[in-house]
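We give the chain.
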Amino acid sequence: MIQTLAYLVKFRDWQCLGIGAAAGLLLALGVLHMTVADPAFALTAAGLLALGVGTVLGMAVVFSYCALRVIRKLSEQNIRRDFALNNMAQGLCMFDGQHRLVVWNKNYETMYGVGSMIRRGCSIGDLLMARHALGTLPRDPKVYETELRAALGRGEIFTVDVEMPDGRIIAVINQPTSEGGWVATHEDITERKRAERELDNTRAFLDSIVENVPSPIIVKDASALTYLLVNRAAEEYLGISRATMLGKTPLDVMPKISADEIMAEDRKLVDCGEISFRGEHGVQTPGNGTRIVTSTRLPIKNAAGEPKYIISVVDDVTERKRSEQRIAHLAHHDQMTDLPNRVAFNECIDATIDLAAIANESFGVLCIDLDRFKAVNDVFGHAVGDSLLREVARRLEQVCQGAFVARVGGDEFTIITPTAQQPRAAEALAERLAAAFEEDITIDSHQMRVGLTIGVAIYPQDGADAATLVANADAALFRAKSEARGSIRFFEMAMDQQLREKRALQQDLRKAVEQNELALHYMPQADMDGRITGFEALARWHHPRHGLVPPDVFIPLAEESGIIGALGEWVLRTACHEAASWPNKLHIAVNLSPVQFQHGDLPSLVHQVLLDTGLSPARLELEITEGVLIGDFTGAVAMLRRLKNMGVRVAMDDFGTGYSSLSYLQSFPFDKIKIDRAFVANLSHSQQSATIIRAVIALSRGLNMPVVAEGVETEAQRAFLAAEGCDAIQGYLVGRPMPIEDYAKLVGRKPAHVSLVARG
């Protein structure tokens, strides 16, 4: 009723009530006039009552009409309100001052599944408990209500994101009203949150990429040129933290010379608005010294097409440049002495010849060999030997001021003199060099004396090209070493003849190896009772013109010319193939050159030969000299261990003739020691040889290594060795080196003539 009256007042229907009252009054008067003849009756109580009733009836009629209008308007408003509420994207609830539900919409019911449980007037606590029971309120209802009431009590908006068990996220906003109640909106923000998370993940992913890109990346504001982003690589490149850079300009953090260049490049980019690239240039950094870099600048433009940001991508090539310089230096310098190496020497001599030819001048080439270096290595070890080489290099450079000095081999050095009057200038330099080594050298408290043997060739009379000139200087050195260590020899034509003969013999040897013109002879090895246990394979070369060339002549030739690799493989393969065919499983011994350990993969070669020939590894014995271990000791021992791991046996040949054999025996477990033939040959007239042999046999017994004595030719020698406990012998007493056909019976074959008779 009150609400209806309120609407009546609102819509000014009180005017209709006045009109209705007047109409009712007139109607009552008309009725009285028609029914009562006496006019005075209207003034009586009954008349007044009738007039009042008429007035009220008129008002009632009008009131009913107005009420119908109000009800119709209220119904239309309710329909519009319900339509609006139920078509909201959010769920909505309205609570009064007693925290009771007064309004809600369909979205709220659907969102939480409370359509059958919700009712007008239920408390917030009941509603929350109902949702909790349905599983649409993952939080504790009482805690939730307490937090809600506390916020509303303070007149604050209470906002919370509720993550539903099914993964939905609902944003709830509780807005207090002036009457003490509140309105709550519930919005499903699952997709928005997912998009935000994806955006955050994408941003984090991009940030991670930028942060971990190995190239420095720097972003600046295009107008203020202040730093906005600096990745980790840029921090390392500049040598300062990004915290000291962000918000500042290059003038604030960079050295002035670099800051001015950077600012100029940035302003140029802003003006042109195009990508710019700057090639290699130096940048002085705040904390990392001068760096060599290339840089690319990219403008990022706004909607108006104006540069908003500047992205600088820097490629710090400093270390690469340093590495290239080191590589270039290493390519042209000896690692141990830091002198120019053979490559640098070849370039220098070519250039010197070109200049001398143009100026019609002369210069000298000195080939130098260090005397007694092997003894130093053997006695004091390789570390002292390396230090000695460095000291030699220092003295050579000190004497050869103005001359080019290079180390071209282990203890071999080569010098190119300046152009001057020759051969006087070269001779004077050679004499100064020899004098520089007359005093002792002290290395690690060890005093030692080494000398120089020098061979000299003069351009152009001793050679007009580099190859000839160096070869002739080397020939002079060879003559000096042959005649007198520590001497100086100039090249002579007779040396050239010897050199040509040597080269011709090398060519013939190469041809003989390629065309399989060499042969193997086999020397028997026996135990002390004379039983043959195996053979040593020995290469033989019968030259078409020179006849039989001794091994001590052609083996060094093969080593010097690089033929030893092919020759050694041929000997190994031929000997293994032959031994694999013997009915009697005797062992076969093959000598290895130190050069074979320096080039190629020797263990792999041996393994492949054993596979190809079918020879058991236990039957193969490889003989080495201590020369194998001189130079790259560690690498040689590693190869020997690989060979032993195959099951191959390794013997130390010519034991006792070197300087450091004892240390080598300690470093590697050899399977056999071979006493050099020189000691056996001197047994009859040298007590020292007998003493050395006794010492070697005693040493081998202590190391549990069998001993083989070489060069045994007499029964007296065999008897002495047997008495001393020697294990095996080889020499003419057992058998001479012969083709294997001559030992057919020993290896289990029938003699050739017997086979022919049998076939006949």
Q: What stands out?
A: Residues 333-491 form a domain with the Alpha-Beta Plaits fold (CATH 3.30.70.270). Residues 457 and 472 are 6 Å apart (CA to CA). The first helix runs from residue 2 to 10. The chain has five domains: 2-85, 88-193, 213-321, 333-491, 506-747.
